[in-house]
Specification:
Two copies of one chain form a homodimer.
Chain A lengths: L18 H16 L6 H8 L3 H7 L11 H14 L6 H16 L3 H12 L2 H24 L4 H24 L6 H16 L3
Helix pairs in contact in A: 1-2, 2-3, 4-5, 4-7, 5-8, 5-9, 7-8, 8-9
Chain A binds a DNA duplex (30 and 30 nucleotides) through helix 3.
Amino acid sequence: MSVTVIAYHRGMSRWEPDARGRLELAALALYLERGFEQTTVAQIAERAGLAERTFFRHYADKREVLFGGSAELQTRLVTAVAEAPAEAAPIDAVKVGLDVIGGALQGRFEHARKRHRVIRANPELLERELIKLAALATALAEALEQRGVPQLTANLAAEAGIAAFKIGFNRWISAAKEQDLALLMRDSLDELRAVTAGQ
Amino acid sequence: MSVTVIAYHRGMSRWEPDARGRLELAALALYLERGFEQTTVAQIAERAGLAERTFFRHYADKREVLFGGSAELQTRLVTAVAEAPAEAAPIDAVKVGLDVIGGALQGRFEHARKRHRVIRANPELLERELIKLAALATALAEALEQRGVPQLTANLAAEAGIAAFKIGFNRWISAAKEQDLALLMRDSLDELRAVTAGQ
DNA sequence: CGAGGTGATGTCAGTTACTGCCATCACCAT
DNA sequence: ATGGTGATGGCAGTAACTGACATCACCTCG
């Protein structure tokens, strides 16, 4: 097995671009190879051709390096909900948001799979994922409030949306081949309604 | 301000009982006084009259000391759902579970308030709370499956139940004086149905 | 009553995540 | 050229957490 170690050499300066990208790649690879706990930040930095100190300038901690894309996902979600038709009911605005999230992840099945395997294997990483989802729920609720939805309703609709996201995502990631994520999330939301209605 | 420091003295042996209880009390008090990050485990242990090493024998890490009761809560929830009438729909079994959780926390308003204030003030503690809730959701889903509920339905009903728990708890903890927690959670679940139905 | 067994605790050394501080380097505008 | 700026490296320090071993109170058994 060949291991890619990026190091200084002729033509490659200290300021080789995309330090973040290199760190994310190196971290995911190492977490897959040896596990999260068995990987030290020094090893990640070395494989990325950077110093350990530099890792912590880009990521607050060892976990965060797996969640570089969550901010953009949240932005897309909020934008989509804000731009949904004014007359749409809260739950329909949520569905629009789910469609956008689904679109953002669609096509990245293999990468999502690897990442998911690493996260599921480590409770600390699962914690980080959960707080990202909670942040997503908060942002979604605030976006709904901006639409004039009362706070309690907004919080409930946001929780329903995140629940649909979680379960739809789990169905997506567990399938043998890539399916339509947005559709799975919409289906989950519909079934959530059926379940809360008492079948 | 007087600070209670427990230390060895005549009549108090090394094996003074309830080490866990002392650690929990000391930790909550210190987290409230100086904040979670500003508190060291050595300080908690000292106030409890124990060595730092002993803290880590009782709690896996500095956060866990605030979640000593979560295992029992989960047990109660699972038991209640298992003992719900066989003919009850999944969502009704969930309601029974919420009632039991509500009953377990009812009357501990002030303690819950302090604990909640500490947790909200620190993202690491929030992460831990979220993973405890996720564990609760998993346990709830498994209890529903034991009742013969299909897996997908069980997961959805469990997510709905935990959403109702979260929002009901937030309403409870935010009120000026203690209200009926189980009732708030039931109401939240009912309103969740209304929201997912599109109002 | 003494001897050993058991479980909780204490002590200590070591690893690693993470932080603060300052030096260094490439690039850019003037 | 000169100086400013932003990203990086190096290094020391703190504190969370772990492993290994000693110690202590209590219990059981003979």
